[in-house]
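So, can you check this one?
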Amino acid sequence: MPLASDASLVEAARAGERTAQEALFRRYARMVNAMAFRLVGPEVEEVEDLVQDSFVAALSSLDRLGEPARFSTWLGSIVVRTAHKRLRRRRLRSRVGPTGMEPGDLDRMIATTAPPDVVAEVRLIYALVERLPTEERLALLLRRVQGMTLPEVAEAMGLSLATVKRRLAAAETALEGARRRGE
């Protein structure tokens, strides 16, 4: 039996078919989870909340999806927008109290066989990325970690290609400057 297309699943989900909604979830849960992990970090609860919030937003607003065949791209942009909101809230909370990634969270991301110098470099990079402005951080992670092309990053973030390029340049300049200062 051939797999149903995204467009047919979206149409069925719009009509209220729960099995179509579940099929969309099963088809894209891994993609959304990977994006969430890369965008907000390894804190399991944060990733799970982002995944759930993204799917709830997508499935409850399917009527706004103009091209049902582009469901995966549209869902990815919802993940980015939802992550952006969470990161901004996290940054705001950090100004009024302790927050951020715990050392144990980062340890789960680094291979136990990694040499000490690599571990130190990964810790430094994540500390620097955590300090970037949210928009720059998202652009950098989508491009360098998620592996998206510049046009894909622009579409996911709802920005022009020129704006994405500026944000990437600013993020890379900030990282390079911090690296030179030995931060």
Q: What stands out?
A: Residues 37 and 127 are 16 Å apart (CA to CA). Residues 96-104 have pLDDT under 50 and may be disordered.
